[in-house]
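Minutes, project check-in
Item: structure for the 118-residue chain
Input as provided by the requester:
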Amino acid sequence: MKLFQLTPLTVLFGLAVTQVSAEEIDSNEKFSELVVGKKLVQENTWVRILKDGVVEGQGPKAGDISGSWEWKGKYYCRDLVIDDVPLPHDCQAVSIEGDTVTFTHKDGSGISVSWKIE
């Protein structure tokens, strides 16, 4: 019975530790230092966010990823085309923990997508 009572506390504690250890990237300077120019990988997909405002990469079926980006306030904002299909403009909150960068869509209120930095 005690194990059951401790489990919710353990889960809550674990989540608190995860949130504290992830660093919010809230400026263009920090984003440029930690993310720009690096290869971001997610399974068979990779992207590079370049300092000249270009996004390039390759999708899971060898399709091209291209687009542009800019920093607005505390968000990474991008316009992307994947396999000739334009995605809607989106601004995203960004955080980093170790070698993983996470982008949270819709100004930080949408889904989160994590990429390994190589």
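Outcome recorded: The mean pLDDT is 86.
No further action items on this chain.
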